[in-house]
Amino acid sequence: MVDFDVQTFIVFLVFMLSLGICHADRNLYSGLQCSEADNSSESSFGVNLDSLLDLLTQKGPLSKGFFKTTVGRSSGKIYGLMQCRGDVSAENCANCTRESVAVALHDCSKSKKVQVWFTWCFLRYSNERFFGVWDQSSAAIVNETDFDDASVVSKALTFISEVSITAPKQPLMFHAAVLDAGQFGKRYGMAQCTRDISRTDCSHCLDTQLMTFRTTIGNKRGWEVYGSSCSMWYHDY
């Protein structure tokens, strides 16, 4: 289920967690947002978009999984960013970026503002500059029936809070950690911000996500929160 806060604008997120089944980490399509704008009347935008996506695909995986750039001038100008999760290999980053581009071109071919989320990467482009601007928009993916044991729940929020505090201080603004839940196994948490925003904004972004979705995610065994400027993951696999 996708839980929307009043500030969110992500219009489509798909629940990808299989009920009661654990999977090794793999790249899954998580969501998409397309604007209503039509670029069909501006041929320069389409040409610039092709150039932008080529640059993001080529340079992102080779730049520690993050690359942003601008292509074009005046009305045809377009800003783009891609980022892979901090623990993903360059090869997997490249594959994920290509998948994101394919989704964007197929499902948002007439849009000027697009965001695509996969487990391993994030693609965003727009005809309006967004670099360095913290965007509070976010949405949560949870399994409404997969509740965790009460003894684990009491530790989980403290654990993920510590992960979110640590992430902004890291070189890639990404942090992953493991919670030992004793007889209930392990829980894995991750937090990451897009590297165009400041460390201060990264902290604010993750804090806001935790506050916004605290009730939604608090007693769940697995959840993901995806945003335009930061994301968090918590699972038992």
UniProtKB/TrEMBL annotation:
CDD domains named in the record: Gnk2-like (cd23509)
Keyword hit for Signal: yes
Keywords: Repeat, Secreted, Signal
Tagged with keyword Nuclease: no
InterPro entries in the record: CRR_secretory_protein, GNK2, GNK2_sf
Signal peptide segment: 1-24
UniProt xrefs under PROSITE patterns: GNK2 (PS51473)
Pfam families xrefs: Stress-antifung (PF01657)
Localization of this protein: Secreted
Cellular component, GO, one term: extracellular region
Family statement: Belongs to the cysteine-rich repeat secretory protein family.
Protein name: Gnk2-homologous domain-containing protein
Organism (species): Gossypium raimondii
